[in-house]
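Single-chain item
Fold in token form
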Amino acid sequence: MRAIRVLAVSGAAAVLVLTAPTLASAASDPPRPQVWSTQLAAPFSLEVDGPRVLVADGGTGALGQLQPDGSIAPIVTGVDGLSGVAVRGKWLAYTSTHTQLPEFINTASGLNIRTPKGVRIYADTHAWEVAHNPDQINTYGPRSEDPCVLGALGPRYEGMVDSHAYSVASWDGKWVVADAGANALLQVDDSGHVSTLAVLPPQSAKITAEAVAELGMPECLVGTTYDFEPVPTDVEVGSDGMLYVTTLPGGPESAALGARGALWRVDPASGDSEWLAGGFLGATNLALGKDGQIYVTELFGGRITEVTGAHTTRTYAELPGVVSVETAPTGTVWAATMGNEEPPAPGTIVSISNGKVKVQAQVKH
């Protein structure tokens, strides 16, 4: 995934760098989150599988299951760049990425598939990206020939080689990976074969005078349209067979250029994408409810937002630091928040429902 930079277009691609707001108490109005665990660091992804709540903690590199006492029973440990998790029956899949520091260059990324017999299969999305670079069909950068604009923002460019297998969902007997570096959805079968399912379109934004002032950029940028890279952060499979995808705007994550995170619906048969809603400040994850609800996390907005219709949204729950969300068949919404270094605060797992949901004992694969 491209690093969060101020309108920068040159240089090597890097990982998603998320800095969460300070964790605070949730709003007093219902629905009110119930805290189940305070033993997380960076819980980038949740998976609800029957009575089990699984969590991919990128801060510790551990994939585990929530226990009744709030502890996290490890399933897999020592995963470099862990961020996504999904299950299909007794199959388990999780994403990993190795990032070379201090350059923030992703040198390896892929999907780890564990069969019911415990055999691990690795799908190398980085190798697929190097060989095919799906988003090279897109062109990004400023729509301008003004030397002042080009001097500040650089020229237009085609999609660069980068893979960050960020999230994963079970789909049609296979897996679909939201690759935040490739700006694409990838299909992976159980043997580890990778193919391109869809490439997301560039995300355009017009640079305002307010943005120029806040970012300290040259005044010649005012009015320039910039085509940012789409950065998929999560993918879920709808009951309609469509794929639902959240994206970050591929540029500054502050509100300087407006809250530009978006929700898309993608047809897996054609790869065509449809913009459903926007205005999200840090859309890092989404979940689909049993009655058609769509929930989107806004990490930098400190809330879970519900998409209520075409281009319409409402705040579902105030939850500072929220980074991931999932739903249970009962309708319960599960969410996880980022930990903080300053001031010190742990990452958490919470549930939001009309009644309490009991976490049952671990069921091993």
About this structure: Confidence is low (pLDDT under 50) at residues 1-28, 354-365. The helical segments are 125-132, 147-153, 209-215.
